[in-house]
Amino acid sequence: MRNLWVDTRAVAAVEFAIVVPFMLLLYVGGVELGNAMAIGVKVSETAHTVADLVSRNACVTDSSLSTMLGASAATIAPYTSSPYSSTSLTVIVSEVSTDAKGNATVTWSKALNGTPLSGSVTLPASLGTPSPANVSLILGQVTYQYTPNLGYTISGTIPISESYYLYPRVSSTVQYPCS
């Protein structure tokens, strides 16, 4: 029994067998977390891009909005193969206007791979409480359905989304459609 207790010939193999699963889990988790964080940055950039492109116009048409939505969806590359055929990416641009009491409603909205907004909207507290009265804002919203490469069975698809508000730059509102 004493010889068995002091025998150290396979200690390294046993330690390796104990440590490898934890190290692999740590490595795979780090890779997936890094991918998700990179996509989060791209989603934020895309929401800013679509709001910025629209806010630079006094009026927009269906054609110009489609072009802007397509261009903004290209900013998330390489995470989608084609911005026009991907169902994992939803881009929505809207104009939100407030009344004299600060109640916000959607004036117009256009979407890429999704449903345009309609009805009333709750503005974030960072814009002021109560909401500013008689203003128009351009709202860019992006949602990306992230599917982890290796951890899909554990977490499933994870929605990563961002909203971005900008004031129109050229006029007090962005007219849609142009008249």
UniProtKB/TrEMBL annotation:
Domain TadE-like: 11-51
Transmembrane segments: 12-30
Alphabetical keyword list: Membrane, Transmembrane, Transmembrane helix
Highest taxon above the source species: Bacteria
Protein name per its UniProtKB record: TadE-like domain-containing protein
